[in-house]
Amino acid sequence: MSEYTGLENLEVMADAENYNRFLVSLIQNEARLDEQLVDFGAGIGTFAKAISSGGFKVHCVESDNRQLTRIVEAGLTASPDLSSLVDRSVDLLYTLNVLEHIEDDVTTLKVCLVKIKPGGRLLIYVPAFQMLYSSMDKKVGHIRRYTRAELCKKVCDAGFDVIKSEYVDSAGFVASLLFKIFGNDDGSINKRALIVYDRYLFPLSRVCDTIFNRLFGKNVFLVARRP
Question: I need a labelling partner for 117 at 20 to 30 A (CA). Which of 39, 150, 183, 202 fits?
Fold first, then answer.
């Protein structure tokens, strides 16, 4: 779950306004106001707060007690695991940068399947390409990075039907590769560099994604349906 990222890194990433706005748009594009949404691995509630402010019903799942407290203090509904949710009750379950922290990701996906309604959807966003694995991944507790093919296979093995999958942030792929080669050994995030990338390069990267989204990117985005 997202406790591996640590509160410090979650708070730094909250400054990546364009990036966070983009992730929120991915969820909003797949959801309807009358649906029940679940934020699996909600962290400090960054995305759940943005989604709920738009009128969507969001239940947060976060296993880290400190982060769970922050979510509840923000006025959001939350629980430490999926067991509190009724089977086949969820219309859309989204999980953003979480699966890469979980050792047995397929089993976790199977648990998610049980909670989602037939015809309901699963939205996943994870880091891409093991060749990009760096000190930053190690610091925040990433076990792996994914290719589109690998993520699609695991989601199908869990019982879902993949609707779409693509790579995201093509410029970020290059930036991550450069960080692996020339970056620091402690994996710390340079807040100033993050903000510069987010404000000036991430929007350009999204334009480039229209060309490269089948080939490469820093992340993989996938939407699947429960049969």
Answer: 150
Please give the Cα distance from 11 to 23 (Å, whole number): 16
67 in Cβ contact with 97 (< 8 Å)? no
pTM of the model: 0.94
Helices 6-13 and 65-73 pack at an angle, to 10 degrees, of: 40
For the chain, give every domain's residue range: 2-225
Architecture per CATH, 2-225: 3-Layer(aba) Sandwich (3.40)
Q: For residue 28, which amino acid is it? A: Q
Q: What's at 136, amino acid-wise?
A: M
Scan for tokens 């949404």, then name that residue: 37
DSSP code string of 100-116 = GG-SSHHHHHHHHHHHE
Q: What is the per-residue pLDDT across 175-192, written as a single tens digit (0 to 9) for each?
A: 999 999 988 888 787 888
Cα(9)–Cα(189) distance, integer angstroms: 7
